Amino acid sequence: MGVSPPARTWRWAATPTRSTSPSPTTEAMRRLLHWVIPVGAMLCALSAQAGSLSVMPVVVALSAHKVREAITVTNQGTERVTTHVDVVSWTQSDGKDVFAPTADVLLNPGVFTLEPGQAQVLRLGWRGQPPLDTERSYRILLREVPPAAPAQRPSGALPSQVRVLLELRIPIYVAPHQVVHRPEWQTRRVDGDTLEVRFRNQSNVHTVVHDLQLASGSGAPLGAPLDVHAAVLAGQERLWTLPLPKAGAADLTVDVRADQGHQRLTIPR
Length: 269
Known about the structure:
Layout: E1 8-11, E2 17-18, H1 28-35, E3 36-38, E4 49-50, E5 53-56, E6 60-62, E7 68-75, E8 81-93, E9 96-101, E10 105-108, E11 111-114, E12 119-126, E13 136-144, E14 166-174, E15 178-179, E16 183-189, E17 194-201, E18 207-216, E19 226-232, E20 237-243, E21 252-258, E22 261-266
Parallel strand pairs: 6-14
Antiparallel strand pairs: 1-16, 2-15, 3-14, 4-5, 5-7, 7-12, 8-9, 8-11, 8-13, 10-12, 13-14, 16-17, 17-20, 18-19, 18-21, 21-22
Pfam families: PapD_N
Region (Disordered): 1-25
InterPro entries: Ig-like_fold (IPR013783), PapD-like_sf (IPR008962), Periplasmic_pilus_chap (IPR050643), Pili_assmbl_chaperone_N (IPR016147)
């Protein structure tokens, strides 16, 4: 087996900016799919809502100057829904999310019931200690509470329907006093069939990577893009693999689409 060619690395210049409270972009509704986690093995089609519940906003952006936010949960279904709400701290380790109890964020109410068409406003407040050097991240967990068991069915009878309970995970980001963007990308051919794309987030805020598109040297897409929609927290890294074309084209690129913009990476031969 031959020696793998050296990896190629790209660094974007550090760009310190004054901290602001970013509002959700037009991508926010699309990113909701990433935060909706089905409970159990059954999956259902999702749009800007999960089951019968819709939530706005889908991303909570806080800062030292904005420590409170209101979230509206609406029951767009035809049945009563009871929901339990909690807030956990959110970190990452080895590319995986880690959640833990926290007292940094107060949220009220913790449990509520909505009739069809009704809405509930959740009010939250961050009580951490600014200024922050690095962004803090949390998740709001909205879990549908199972309805009361129906009247006893005859022995051996099957239920008329199976209800899928869903959990929504809404991210909360608390901005540092000064934001520095320093993302670092690296590409490497593992063998003749596979390409590794590694992202190291050297920024002090998170980055959301939307998708990766393998392309020819002229920029023509090769195959379908790899949908990622992954939030990489400050100081963390992620690794993705892409299949290389069988033709063995020498001049290839990877187009990266992220919340910080678009970047084209060349691939070492």
